[in-house]
């Protein structure tokens, strides 16, 4: 009964650590009893489809853990996030806030900006609002379309055959792509609150405004692709093709940026950025070093896009054969 073993393993992954063994043992006994009764009733061993029909009665394996922990919800007048999604909501929210705080702290420390609490209020508030809104939308879709009932055997962990996109991979892609949109969208308008009145003296050059729609579009397509693969992890060819397309779009963005003369500029009275620095026999300004560093990072990103497009397309086309 491989399908039952995979179902139990998937459920176990999301159970409270202190009760995993007991809950899985009880669930295993119940499922096998139901299968034996059904086999006795039909007079033949159940095939995979018939076993899945029994497993579906026990619920989505990725959300089954919520039945055994404290059934917490988020409600403001009405229920925004139910007990099935609440544990995931807390983990994603904590992770996104931690990333935002770490990034803000690292940048302020690197530029010797004095510590204060106020610059952290905006990123934390934005993360809280956006993550809560996203999970509320998922919960609303569940009430309307019963999304959580649409799991397939291909999504269960572990799977020996490689012909599927891992469920965990799709989740991670959605979370990090969403975090990028949060940072690139609202956060770049709050430089004063985050980095101080001078915004570190550095501003993005106008070329970034030109490529912004392409960058955002690329990320939105990746989020949509990952959402599709959550419900259809067996669509590996679809995954490979869409990833290749977004990688090529990223390469276009990189080429566009590298074609610009300037990627970052000095803003305000940032005289320190025009200081002359000796580099061997050359004399360059701090701003030139910053621009060179950004160009190098973008060039590396371009090389990664090319390599990832080739490897991804080969891998997923091979798996789908």
Describe the protein's architecture and organization.
By secondary structure, the chain is mostly helical. Among the domains are: 1-66, no CATH class; 194-321, no CATH class. The chain is 63% helix and 7% strand. The chain is built from ten helices and six strands, in the order αααββααααβααβββα. The strands form three sheets. A two-stranded antiparallel sheet has the order 1-2. A two-stranded antiparallel sheet has the order 3-4. A two-stranded antiparallel sheet has the order 5-6. It is elongated, with a radius of gyration of 25 Å. The relative contact order is 0.08. The model has no long low-confidence stretch (mean pLDDT 79).
Could you give a short description of this structure?
With 321 residues, this protein is mostly helical. It has helices spanning 2-13, 20-42, 48-56, 86-110, 118-145, 167-184, 191-195, 207-231, 236-258, 286-320; strands spanning 74-76, 78-81, 202-204, 264-266, 276-279, 282-285.
How would you describe the oligomerization state of the chains in this entry? single chain
Distance between the termini: 26 Å
Average the pLDDT over all residues and give the rounded result. Answer: 79
- What is the helix content? 55-70%
- Cα-atom Rg, whole angstroms? 25 Å
Poorly predicted spans: none
Largest sheet: 2 strands, antiparallel
SSE blueprint:
Blueprint: H1 2-13, H2 20-42, H3 48-56, E1 74-76, E2 78-81, H4 86-110, H5 118-145, H6 167-184, H7 191-195, E3 202-204, H8 207-231, H9 236-258, E4 264-266, E5 276-279, E6 282-285, H10 286-320
Antiparallel strand pairs: 1-2, 3-4, 5-6
